[in-house]
Write a structure and sequence with these properties.
It is a single chain. The chain is an alpha+beta fold. The protein folds into 2 domains: about 1-75, Glutaredoxin (3-Layer(aba) Sandwich), CATH 3.40.30.10; about 85-190, Glutathione S-transferase Yfyf (Class Pi), Chain A, domain 2, CATH 1.20.1050.10. It contains 7 helices and 4 strands; from the N terminus they run βαβαββααααα. It has helices at about 10-20, 40-45, 65-75, 85-115, 120-145, 155-165, 180-190; strands spanning about 1-5, 25-30, 55, 60-65. Strands 2-1-3-4 form a 4-stranded mixed beta sheet, with helices on one face. Strand 1 (about 1-5), helix 1 and strand 2 (about 25-30) form a beta-alpha-beta unit. Helix 1 (about 10-20) runs parallel beside helix 3, helix 1 crosses helix 6 and helix 4 packs parallel to helix 6 (about 155-165). The protein binds glutathione. The site of glutathione has 13 residues, from helix 1 and helix 3.
């Protein structure tokens, strides 16, 4: 299969982390988002929203949205429970990641540490961090009760939430007040075939 992502994409990292842990081979295509690669016509045909990651399966099936890709790839594996209520608990946190977490972690990281334009975006950063702090609070409460985000076993919900939580401090968050989140981050890094963001 083919995976389109960018060098620093946390969303792409989710997909590559899962592929590594499932031991599945793939071809990686690294887009340079700053150069506008995602807006080129060939790529827009794969994803009209001009965003990575995109998966193209061997039979030509195209899938966008990191969590949809995680669900597709993990089907039938130990990383996605087959039955209720465990499966629903995983999907609950995947939706949380998209609505309550991703943007509030990813955008501050971009503004502060990648584009380095924090000074010009003070108001936006305050706004984003208000929501991001609520997301971290919710994760802390959950992880104080269970080893992994969806329960006692490691699943794609952990893979989905790991990248941008682990990079939260790049966006100006402090994880000092989140001990259970820090223990969980270390636990995810100990999982078999874990890969860092930049792994090749
Ligand atoms: N909801 C999408 C978000 C994907 C997304 O925001 N991707 C970013 C990179 S992490 C992107 O491609 N941005 C396009 C750009 O910056 O031009 C997902 O989970 O896959």
């Amino acid at each position: 299969m083919d995976i389109y992502d960018s060098r620093l994409s946390g969303n792409g990292w989710k997909v590559r982390l899962l592929l590594s842990q499932l031991g599945l081979p793939y071809r990686r295509h690294i887009l340079n988002l700053a150069d506008g690669d995602a807006r080129k016509r060939e790529f827009i045909q794969l994803n009209p929203l001009a965003r990575v990651p995109v998966l193209v399966a061997d039979d030509g099936f195209v899938l966008t949205e990191s969590n949809a890709i995680l669900l597709y790839l993990a089907e039938g594996s130990r990383l996605l429970p087959r039955t209720a209520p465990d499966r629903q608990r995983v999907t609950e946190w995947l939706f949380f990641e998209q609505f309550d977490h991703l943007r509030f972690m990813a955008r501050p990281r971009y503004l502060v540490s990648i584009a380095k334009v924090a000074d010009k975006h003070r108001e936006e950063l305050d706004y984003l961090r208000g929501f991001g702090t609520k997301a971290l609070d919710a994760m802390e409460r959950r992880l104080a009760q269970s080893k992994f985000i969806a329960g006692d076993v490691y699943t794609i919900a952990d893979i989905s939430l790991f990248p941008y939580t682990s990079m939260a401090e790049m966006g100006g968050y402090s994880l000092a007040a989140y001990p259970a989140v820090r223990v969980w981050l270390a636990e995810v890094e100990r999982q078999h075939r874990f890969i860092p963001l930049i792994s090749q």
